[in-house]
TrEMBL record:
It comes from the Bacteria. The keyword Transmembrane applies. It comes from Vagococcus entomophilus. InterPro entries: Cold_shock_CspA, DUF1294. This is DUF1294 domain-containing protein. The chain crosses the membrane at residues 7-24, 39-57, 69-89. Keywords: Membrane, Transmembrane, Transmembrane helix. GO terms for molecular function: nucleic acid binding.
Length: 91
């Protein structure tokens, strides 16, 4: 009944985390406060948080002019698919 694979848990956590980081960074940008480094956002997107990043990017209209974010988030989505393919969703 329950998945023995850590893949679903990891994918949910990393994507929700990136979504939250993008929201927080947008909030800080609006308030002219100290921002989250782009390298952190990009790294988290590449290691599997691409879907959360893409959704946040569109929803919050944040980092939409920066092509490197789109590229990194697409790579992150490909990482998600690779993890699902290699390790399976149900384990």
């Amino acid at each position: 009944m329950f998945s023995t694979s850590p893949v679903p848990f990891y994918l949910v956590i990393v994507n929700v985390y990136v979504f939250g980081l993008m929201w927080w960074d947008k909030r800080k940008a609006i308030r002219h406060e100290w921002r989250i480094p782009e390298s952190n956002l990009l790294f988290m997107g590449i290691i599997g948080g691409g879907l959360g990043g893409i959704i946040a990017r569109q929803l919050f209209h944040h980092k939409t002019r920066k092509r490197k974010f789109l590229i990194c988030f697409v790579i992150g989505i490909l990482v998600d698919f690779a993890l699902i393919f290699i390790y399976g969703w149900q384990g």
